[in-house]
Design a protein that fits this description.
This protein is mostly beta strands. The chain has no helices and eleven strands. The radius of gyration is 13 Å and the shape is globular.
Length: 124
């Protein structure tokens, strides 16, 4: 069982930045693809981006492309979500998720393990 713990959320003004971290309990985490998802109040969970295992190829939703960057430090079993130029519509609970596969996915159903989420609030 892989445990994921997110951190780094908070309150930020529009135009600001935050970096979220997702730390995994799994020693072979480098072999896992990781996705970032978010869920705003009253809305469905939506895909933000993903990073493959070993090599770290990334893919982003159009809504965050050019503003969000996913990276990974496998020596620390950690994946990051750097969020720049934040907008009020980015306000949501952000989740990281992992699957024991090289390839990531934009579908939440493809992920086996989930963190507890971290709140990001962007004020206007």
């Amino acid at each position: 069982q892989v445990q994921l713990v997110e951190s780094g959320g908070g309150l930020v003004q529009a135009g600001g930045s935050l970096r979220l971290s997702c730390v995994a309990s799994e020693r072979t985490f480098s072999r896992y693809a990781v996705g970032w998802f978010r869920q705003a109040p009253g809305k469905e969970r939506e895909f933000a981006g993903t990073i493959t295992g070993i090599g770290g190829t990334t893919k982003y939703a159009d809504s965050v492309k050019g503003r969000f960057t996913i990276s990974r430090d496998d020596a620390k079993n950690t994946v990051y979500l750097q969020m720049n130029n934040l907008k009020p519509e980015d306000t949501a609970v952000y989740y990281c998720a992992a699957r024991p596969s090289y390839d990531g996915s934009s579908s939440a159903r493809q992920y086996d393990y989930w963190g507890q989420g971290t709140q990001v609030t962007v004020s206007s």
